[in-house]
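This part of the workshop introduces the protein records we will be handling. Each record describes a single protein and holds just a pair of labelled lines. Instead of coordinates, the fold is spelled out as a row of discrete tokens. To make this concrete, we reproduce a full record directly below:
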Amino acid sequence: MNKQFDLGFDLSDCDPVMSLDDYQDLLHEWQSKNFGSQPISNAALGVAEEAGELAHAVLKRLQGIRGFRDDVKYHAAVTDAIGDIAIYSMQLCSAIGVSFDSVVRHTADHVLQRDWKRFDESGKGNGK
């Protein structure tokens, strides 16, 4: 892993025993309590909005404007957007009745099987 940055928050207050599935369940309850039943489009639009905030931070960093040259400001914006994308993604998973943790693990397993250096067309030797 690359250099660790001070994210501006303390991870020691997070429950080390809770799984992503536990958080997904709690967030689903929180969403229902605060917003009632929501169409799946709300969570999908939330992912898009937060991806835009992530892209904004990266673009302004590349342009060297709006204070994003500052590592603390930049990393705070990026990690906030990534966290929000994960939360909205969990809500999407809840809406379709699947485990966010399982989706991430399944996708990671598929990605880790690819070798783009050896198989530049598909990442796999069989071309699929």
Notes: The mean pLDDT is 91.
